[in-house]
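Thread: NTP transferase domain-containing protein, structure

OP (GT): Posting the sequence first so everyone is looking at the same thing. Length is 375 residues per the record. Can we get the structure tokens written out before standup tomorrow? I want them in the notebook alongside the other entries.
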Amino acid sequence: MKKIISMILVGGKGTRLGDMTKGKAKPAISFGGKYRLIDFTLSNLSHSHIDVCGLVTQYEPMDLMNYIGNGSSWDLDYTDGGIRFLTPYLKKDAIEWQKGTGHAVKQFFDFIDHYQSQYVLILPGDHIYKMDYNKMIQAIDEDQSDILVASTRLNQSDLYRFGIVETDPSGHLLSFTEKPNHPSSNLVSMGIYIFKTEVLKSLLFSEKDLLDFGSDIIPEAIHQNYKILSYEFKGYWRDVGTLESLYEANMDMLNDEHFLGLNSSKNLPIFSRSLNLDPHIVLNDGLVQSSVIADACLINGHVIHSTLAYQVHMKKNSLVKDCVILSGVEIGYKAHIEKAIINEGVKIPDHYHSINEHCILITEDNLFKVGEIRE
């Protein structure tokens, strides 16, 4: 019997990220040049010594599964436990697709039952943060709560995308409202939960159709008078569910050389899988300022305050500024791009210009809708 096991929800389509999630699950998206979003959750699990992880997949899982492999890059390749991919399968002559975050976990409750753990840790796979989950486990243990909800405080302008948490003076939940029009608090749910296993099972298999943790399960648990503790997290955290939030998180990294300690091997380092590529090369006409360049990039232009993922090639006299460039992009001679995310594999033609006031996504399909050729 284990103290706790984890379930990571990686099956969402990520529609607000547009073409970036065409052909891959959102947690497989690049961040900061050399990372993927899933790296943060897997690294947190590794440092917290939680050695059973069920990854609940659905939408376009192949790229993510290939990247994670057996989990050895995060020291999660255990024989008894480790990473297990939980994919939709045939039940009673039909495949039942996931209808919500809670429903996704319910489909694989036999996986949870197998380990007979005291607690189940529910995690999103697409957030940027560093957390020692043991502190939450200690908090729910000491408080003897049934459920723990990880929460954090945000600016008023960001509240509309999240579930709002209200607590009493002792930190126990009084209410939980998913994405209200008029938030009553700036304390939001991070989508991270710890449940006593028997409590989670009772809620998921009740007569009510509880499909989603935020919309259904937590409000119902409050209604049933379960003891629910809010664990307030005060470190850096971003849910990068939109183009703007993903872009801003990349800019946050560039603006802070100590961002999440990514350049340090101490204090919960974030691991990623090495692709065993050649180092990047900056040629004679290349210039790099305040940027992050991943392996196998060939730079003969100017890179200013930008992140470049693997195998980006820039021709002479090209310039990118305040950009997030995904892998396999080619940028042509005298191209000039500012404030954009450039999708994987896009080929930017010579003399192309796209200079923007706000972040945009450049894809093969919209290339000439958001920019033009200037000879």
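GT: Both are above now. Quick notes for whoever picks this up: Residues 281-373 form a domain with the UDP N-Acetylglucosamine Acyltransferase; domain 1 fold (CATH 2.160.10.10). The chain has two domains: 4-261, 281-373.
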